[in-house]
Amino acid sequence: MVWEPKRRGAIVKRDVDDHTIMERSLLVKRYELELDRKKCIGCGICADACPKEAIKYSPAEFKGIRAISRPSIDFDPELCVLCGECVTVCPLHALTMRMDGAERIPVVELNVFAQATRKRW
Amino acid sequence: MEEPRIGVYVCHCGLNIAATVECEEVAKRASGLPNVVLSKDYRYMCSDPGQEMIRKDIVEHGLNRVIVAACSPRMHEQTFRRCVASAGLNPFLFEMANIRELCSWCHTHHPIEATEKAFDLVKMAVAKARYLNPLEVIKVPVTKASLVIGGGVAGIHAALDLADMGFKVYLVERSPTIGGHMAQLDKTFPTLDCSICILGPKMVDVAQHPNIVLLTYSEVRRVEGYIGNFRVTVVRKPRYVVERECNGCGECAKACPVEVPNEFDEGLGFRKAIYMPFPQAVPAKYTIDRRACIECMGCVEACRLQGRNAIDLDMREEEIQLEVGTIIVATGYDLYDASRIKAYGYGIYDNVFAALEFERMINASGPTMGQIIRHSDKRVPNSLAFITCVGSRDEKANIYCSGFCCMYTLKNALLMREHYPNTKIYILYMDMRTPFKGYEEFFRRAREEGIIFLRGRPTEIYEDPKTKNLLISMENISTGEPMDLEVEMVVLSPAAVPPEGSEELARALTIPREMSGFFMEAHAKLKPIDAATDGVFLCGAAHGPKDIPYSVSQGSAAASRAARIMARGEWEIEPIVAYVDPEKCRNTKAKCGICTTKCPYGAITAEEGRAAVVNTAKCHGCGTCAADCPANAITQMHFTDAQIIAQIHAALEEKPEEKILGFLCNWCSYGAADLAGTSRFEYPTEIRIIRVMCSGRIDRDFVLEAFRKGAGMVLVSGCRFGDCHYISGNYNAEKRIKPLFSLLPRLGISPERLRLEWFSAAEAGFYVNLVKEMSKTLRELGTDRIRMENEKARPLLDRMLIHLGGGGS
After folding, report:
1. B436 exposed, middle or buried (CB, 10 Å; 0-12, 13-18, 19+)?
2. Which residue, B446, B443, B444, B470, is CA-closest to B458?
3. How many CB atoms lie within 10 A of CB B471?
4. Which residue in A80, B69, B85, B273 could disulfide with B292, CB within 3.0 to 4.6 Å?
5. Confidence of residue B617 (pLDDT cuts 50, 70, 90)
6. Mean pLDDT comparison of B101-105, B531-535, B573-577, highest-scoring range
7. Buried b (16+ CB within 10 A) or exposed e, B509-538
8. Closest approach of B295 to chain A, Cα-based (Å)
9. Cβ contact (<8 Å) for A27 and B258?
10. Pick from B413, B494, B472, B403: nearest CA to B446
11. Right CATH number for B335-495 from 3.40.50.300, 3.60.10.10, 3.50.50.60, 3.30.200.20?
12. Integer CA distances (angstroms), B111 to B29, B105, B114, B769, in order
């Protein structure tokens, strides 16, 4: 356990098995963004779409011609605002956004998308 | 200059002085001093007949210098200055000898030595008086507008009072709304009034007042100028919503997809990226938090649908210039970050909360609609413990008492009792401090309502990983037994601490802060509202933790202090300023400019090839530049080199090797010496004190001259670091005096004969012990050895101090 105090309302990132979970637990509401690393192939579309540049894309690493790691993505909890933009663009449905346990995507509900996404598509 | 005709008046102060000091003898001996034409003693010099006597003598005997040997100049200098002025004499031709606080009160059991010392002090005053020059007060025009920094309850009241008096007020607040911490509270003690219900109307008054310009989401960046004529640069942060256009309808927030923790709710609830902190916010305008915005333009479209176009994402930071005559600082406080006390587990355990979070929870318009719930299972706790003194009265955090925490803890406990009668409520306290009107009654009420008070400071809090209950281990001081207490929720009462940015603001305004970080007033008793910089005033928690009524009264007090300056239209400045002799200034020939770097107020400018110039209105009269000028071209009026050297000579005229010469700064060390007197602490009589405004004025030459004249020991002292009333004077003094410790042995003088000490005006005990120590050292060294050392050092010192002239050596 990390013995570092967290700011009230800060996003906490944790890894459970093959899942990376970004959680913001407010007293009155809980937000979760979950990445299923088994489904993710590391295409990086979400990283391009993220309006806060909170997703870091790492390409595959090679040793000679042998790939030693798959391409992958990672979240920056300091930058993420849990808007759900990445969830809408993921072609493999590897991302899930939940609010108080129920699957909900804020940008879809309000039918607004970040300018960055609009320009690309 | 006309020949000085000095009148000396020795005051008995009833028996305060006369019981120890032979006043008649002192007066008789003083009549033999050079230029003294008249010497009298009288029971009470400050009384009407006493003052009348001075006035009459000035006219009849043609006196042109007046000396009163009585109490501290910090007490009655102004009184006697007015007295001599009313007789037509320039007030700066008056000098005071402090024979009460510095002599009779602290040497009660040594009347012979005390009388000797009193005479020395009179002699020093006479010596200085011979070099006194008439000075004219400096008059500056005053802009009839005021800047209030901080829109909390103190700032709001200061602004409203000034605006009602007819002055223009700029109220600058860095968050998007005014209201401060009071707007966050649920109820106020001890009356349990709804906080926002009583504050809200005041906030609206501010927004609607024709004399108030409200600048929210803005910060003070630069302050230039001086009393009556400040030029302030304010930065308006972009809120990306045009204030004129926004009508606060809130359609934009409905369209915003981003939810982030709301600072106003202490992070318990959420807000959108475009937000108004709370419904009663003033101004009722939205703000976009660009750190959270994803630029979806949902708000822009929503605003257009309302037929408006208030959102402008291209808005830029804007600087505006304000011209004001006075500045009121009402920057308030922050709460101490309780997570810094690891043992309490704040930020780690789910069910440990801080007081403001509790306030937001129990507030009916808060995120939980007034419900108190645990974070772990969203259930109302069956037991709850409040812990006071979190980060206050604690050596490891802040040593001061934060003042209002006891009361807000009691209030929160009573609210909890009212909302949830079945919850068991504990208050773990060190002491209950409830000194003001109605507060003790409130404490009694809390006890009667069945709240359990346990005395002691918890040592550690543990969390039960299953139930998420909290186990508090503490020593119950009432029984002396260690105990464990299991509760379902803990609410900490953190100390109030100076808000972020205080340091930058202190620098911009050139006002000092205390060790605690809160701003320091000019005088703890008699100028509690004034800051050390003229024309700047403090109110509310900016000056130290305060509750609401105290902050409101200080806000109004600051308004009246500021109005006192602005109502007149012009202001007089004490002429104890620095003056550069253009003939002597080196900057004409070479690039020097040392004085410009030493001046803490940026009052000196030295253009290349020209002599340095002091802006008298900006100069505060610390004298640091005068002491550091390599060409001795700078003089501080009323504390000139000639005057101080004359005092040194007078003090060391007889038996110098048996004396300690002290240079004390007016604000701290002289204050401590005064306090030692008023506290009737006894200490050895050897010390003779020369008062300067700041330790920064103490020239190396003064110390060396004292040794040349044979002084047994020399003390240089000033305020503690960080407490200097002239910001950095004591740092400069240290830089200047410290090298002497290595120089003195080379001259053959024992370095222990010089002491450099820093203490505050409250540390009379420190001062007394210091004098005792020095007196002991003096005796251990012995007069013979000191005399021998002095003999050896004299030829060298004579050569080093040739620029001071013979001075009668």
Report:
1. middle
2. B470
3. 13
4. B273
5. confident
6. B101-105
7. bbbbbbebebbbbbbeeeebbbbbbbbbbb
8. 5
9. no
10. B413
11. 3.50.50.60
12. 16, 11, 5, 21
CB distance A25 to A96 below 8 Å: no
CATH assignment of B1-137?
A: 3.40.50
Number of folded domains that form chain A:
1
A87 and chain B in contact, CB less than 8 A: no
| Structural domain B577-634, CATH architecture | 2-Layer Sandwich (3.30)
* The pLDDT of residue B36: 96
List Cβ neighbours of B448 (8 Å cut-off, separation of 6 or more). Answer: none
Least CB–CB distance from A28: residue in B268, B295, B298: B268
Query: How far does the CA of residue B411 sit from the closest CA of chain A (Å)?
Result: 22
CB B604 within 8 A of CB B596: yes
Q: Is residue A4 part of a domain?
A: no
Q: Which residue of B has its CA nearest to A113?
A: B296
* Cβ-contact A84, A108 below 8 angstroms: yes
pLDDT tens, position by position, B253-278? 999 999 999 999 999 999 999 999 99
Please state, in angstroms and rounded to a whole number, the distance separating the CA atoms of residues B378 and B281: 29
Question: Do the domains at B1-137 and B335-495 have one common CATH topology?
Answer: no
CATH of the domain at A98: 3.30.70.20
Q: Tell me whether residues B375 and A28 touch, CB distance under 8 A.
A: no
- Residue B498: DSSP 8-state: P
CATH T-level fold of B145-333+498-566: FAD/NAD(P)-binding domain (3.50.50)
Residue B809 tokens read as 């050596």
Domain membership of residue A81 as a residue range: 12-120
- In a domain? residue A68: yes
